[in-house]
Hints:
The protein contains 16 helices and no strands. By secondary structure, the protein is mainly alpha-helical.
Amino acid sequence: MSNKKTTREDYLFLSAFLRAKEAKMLTADKAERMLSAQSFDEAAKMLVECGYEDFSGMNASELQKALSDRRDEIFCDLERMAPDKELVAMFRMQFDYHNAKTLLKAEAMNTHRSDLLSSCGRISPEKLEACIHDDSYTDCPEILGKAIAEAKSVLMRTENPQNADFVLDRAYFAELLNAAKELQSEYLVGYVRIMTDAANLRSAVRTRRMGKDADFLSKALIPGGEVDCDRIIAAYGTTESLTALYAAGPLAHAAVLGAAASEGGRLTDFELAADNAVTEYLKKAKLVSFGEAPVAAYIAAVNTELCAVRMILTGMLSGVGSDIIRERLRELYA
């Protein structure tokens, strides 16, 4: 842990507390029951047994806010209980970088999209917006602030939001890996590495699918995974070589589907397989009695659950068929 006095034993109470919470989480069977419900209200009421408030009668924007509030409440509760607050901060990072991307694009287009911002980051959207507007990042976490300044410069110079996203993505994963190492957790380091490998595999598949060259791919790749970026670029010429790079690891199945997707096959199947490989890694924490691993796995599982709930309920509100929603659902932790 980053604090030398913090030990795995310090997580005994929190680990036991979260094990009990896991028993109420959304399972594949419960999700299927929601998908089989006759109405949005009926499906929403089923979530009450999972500890949610009653979402029935809500519209899409009200539902979005309620789910965001639930995530923020869970983060705040865990920050109060966790022996090392940086563990929770690690999972807040993604929302800082999401907000940064949204705000930079909005500023470039002279628009305002507060509806796309999340309050679950380490810094409030309002404060982050002020930092970007004033070009002053002293109130930002250091790596985030430097990345935003660089991304803003790249966006102004190239007028290409994708190039700015590449800068922020690399900074996000670098900060994530640094946090995992600071926490001295092999489990968290492994989690960041498989997330990085999955992100790089996605980039390779999408780049090939778009007909772009290896130079474009090199801008999108993120250092820090088990599969080295140089090897991915070298193997980029053929899908067979790219598949072989991942053959011995947890993303082997996803790589096979990715090879098919890169040639015009179903992208959804590949995306699901990549996300599910990360979930399978997280499930290793179920074999750990206590420590930072069960806490980290629970937070990641909450994020996956909230995405599933949003996908099911917003899909029902929009009239999307249950079969279409079902095939897009990621594997749940519980």
